[in-house]
Amino acid sequence: MSLSELTRARGGQDKLGNAGRNADDGSTTVQRHPAGPPKHNIFVQAIRLISFVLYFGGGCLTCHAAQLVCAVSYFVNRDYFYALMAFYKQAFGVLITTMTQWWSPTKIRISGDESVRGELHQTEDGRFECDFPHRLVLIANHQLYTEWIYLWWIAYAARMHGHFYIILKESLKHLPILGPAMQLFGFIFLARNWERDRPRFQYRLQKLNTRHKGPMSGPEGLDPMWLLLFPEGTNLGTNSRRSSAKWAEKTGIRDFKHCLLPRATGLLYCLQELSGTLDYVYDCTIAYEGIPHGQFGEQLFTLRGTYLEGRPPKSVNMHWRKFIMSQIPLHDSKAFEAWLHERWQEKDDLLEHYQQTGRFPADEGKDTWNGGVSPHKVAFGAGHIETEVRPAHTIEVVQVFLPFVLVLLTFYALRKLWNLF
Fold it and tell me: What is the pLDDT of residues 266-287, one digit of tens each?
């Protein structure tokens, strides 16, 4: 299929969501959904919807209520304010981990190259753990709106889920409950207008560079930070595929087959501002099993299909790499654009490898430790790790609603104080 044909491809669905459009004449042709037909009828879907809203919605409400109660601490002791926000962010990380485990369970396949040798592990009970550093910028290709959930779970696997930050489009901060909660979490919202975005971007990045002495602070007073950024700017779909092809034609560069052309401006500015407190950029290439050629994940793995119909991706596949900050050309915008384009070309090649073989390549080598905890350890390539999204201990679900208990205790204490006067 040519690029022009690919950009014309549509994802029309029959009542089972199993149809696509013929790329040549627009006619509808039946294609099997990667996860098969819906596993639940309408009645069961209604029950799943109610339970999902009660659990996820209730968790979000209690978390945000606790945020609002503790927001006053910002004006009293900012170190403790940031520690409390990190604690509530941990609770939200557990919330989305258990939500995924119960409503959209799927296989996760993880591999990496030699740059992350010794940092990917599988526990005896099959869980995934990683030894990524406490401060990093994370970049990834973008195919689904729910990708951030899987990447936040990776932070959970590194015990960094209380220090996860996301760069988002500005419209999302107006979402009820979630919008204000994300602002209190310190997420960064951009309007895709660099003149407007640059001052607020600089302000938020300076916040991430500020040193604290609170209970959740990291070494040398720098808070742990995993900052997620999607350089493509939007998820892969029909319209974004067409826009990427037009930009490639206009600028005279070759478009990619499996991902969009990345935007360098925001990432370059981010790395420049954080360069004194950051050693690595981590890159994740994500692929979803069974997406037919010419269709896109957003057409197939909708929120309804994933959480209500029981049709999440059959497997989510991740390939990890890391890059040393000192080796990235941060002081030359043209050189950085070329560097980023090369990384995305490698990413496109990885995705092509996945399309051809059903797996990403995996490092299985062995060498001395690559700069981690102890120089005396031996680092092994993890090969292919197959696991699932789940918490280390089921009891951790208590943390999801612990903020609600703290809210009740706060109101109880205030009431007692009020009665004293």
Answer: 999 999 999 989 999 999 999 9
Q: Could you tell me if 335 and 329 are in contact, meaning their C-beta atoms sit under 8 angstroms apart?
A: yes
Among the listed ranges 151-165, 171-185, 310-324, 391-405, which one has the minimum average pLDDT value? Answer: 391-405
The answer to whether 187 touches 168, Cβ cutoff 8 Å, is yes
Q: Which residues contact 199 (CB under 8 A, 6 or more apart)?
A: none
Displacement of CA 6 from its chain's centroid (Å): 26
Contact 213, 79 (CB under 8 A): yes
Contacts (Cβ under 8 Å, ≥6 apart) of 345: 256
Report, in this order, helix, strand and coil percent for the chain, each rounded to 5. 50, 15, 35
Closest CA to 146 of 100, 189, 191, 95: 100
CA geometry: angle 400, 146, 82, nearest 5 deg: 45
Find where tokens 């009740």 sit: 408
Pairing of the two strands 378-380 and 366-368: antiparallel
Tell me if 82 sits within 8 A of 384, measured CB to CB. Answer: no
pTM for the model stands at 0.88
Which residue, 276, 246, 280, is CA-closest to 260?
246
Asked whether 245 and 7 are in contact (CB, 8 A), the reply is: yes
Torsion angle of alpha carbons 192, 193, 196, 198, nearest 10°?
70
Residues 274, 268: Cα–Cα separation, whole Å = 10
pLDDT of residue 377: 66
The CB density around residue 375, as the number of other CB atoms within 10 Å, is: 9
* Count of alpha carbons within 13 angstroms of residue 242, beta-carbon side: 7
Residue type at position 77:
N
H/E element, 227: strand 225-229
Q: How far is CA 120 from CA 110, 135, 227, 414, in A?
A: 8, 17, 19, 47
The amino acid at residue 394 is T
